[in-house]
Amino acid sequence: MSNTILRVGSVTFVFALWWGFSILNQHMKFFPPAMIPSPPEVIEAGWGIRDKVPSDVLISLIRVFEGFVIAAVLGIFLGCLSGTSRVAENLIDPVLEILRPIPPLAFLPIFIIWFGLGELSKVLMIAFASFFIIYVNTYQGVRYADPLLMRAARSLGAKKRASFFTIGLPSAMPEIFTGLRLGAGMAFFVLVAAELLAADNGMGFRIQEARWQFRVDRMFFGAALIGVVGFVLLGALRRLEIRLLAWKPSRDEAR
Predict the structure, then answer these.
(1) 3-state secondary structure of 144
(2) pLDDT tens-digit profile of 211-251?
(3) How far, in Å, CA of 141 to CA of 177, rounded?
(4) What share of the chain is helix, strand, coil (3-state, %, to 5)?
(5) Could you tell me which residues come within 8 angstroms of residue 108 by beta carbon, excluding any fewer than 6 positions away?
(6) Is it the case that residue 115 has pLDDT exceeding 90?
(7) Gyration radius of the chain's alpha carbons
(8) Taking each helix axis from N to C terminus, what angle separates 39-48 and 216-244, rounded to the nearest 10 degrees?
(9) The domain 52-248 is classified under which CATH number: 3.90.1150.10, 3.90.1300.10, 1.10.3720.10, 3.40.50.970?
């Protein structure tokens, strides 16, 4: 209960700080008042486009889901492959290590040229950006699974594949889920960038539309909407992690 109070209190404090500064700015004119809208003004701006919000959220979620699934499947598969095979690691890892430091958004114009302005370029861009985070975390989890347990299983007659699925993969699941949550956050980041540049719908496009109209209040609403949707989805992924990894002791249990 105390954790919930602290979490709600921290959000409430930031919300109150924003509201207070917007009121102060209206009187002191640090910035033009239209540049720092108050929370009620942002809510009112969102109410003005309420008929567009459900479709924008649905379209953006479909893009995120499709790209994230592609990234998760490839990232977990290649991460497990590199983590269990030296040959695969030497073939796969150098190429990915060259590509990984390059900001994903640097490839966005290339993806648009290759795949056009349709859905494919956005989905593949999301998959590309999320893939590396998931791959690295999966590789680390599998590569550094408890060697004592692995050797014990092999000494008891377990095959390499059986020891991987019974010990290696389960022990790597916390790192894999960390990669999935970070990858999901990256998916939303790239989604907004892709929709800002090459879309005529979605949550990111609605922010771009507000910029064209110089509606800062709607821009704030769009950003807040993305934050809320991302918070709910990441929370759901966290709940799934807790349920699937119920066997893993948490820090709270150790206190």
Answers:
(1) coil
(2) 888 889 999 999 899 888 988 888 888 888 888 776 666 55
(3) 10
(4) 85, 0, 15
(5) 125, 193, 194, 197, 198
(6) no
(7) 22
(8) 90
(9) 1.10.3720.10
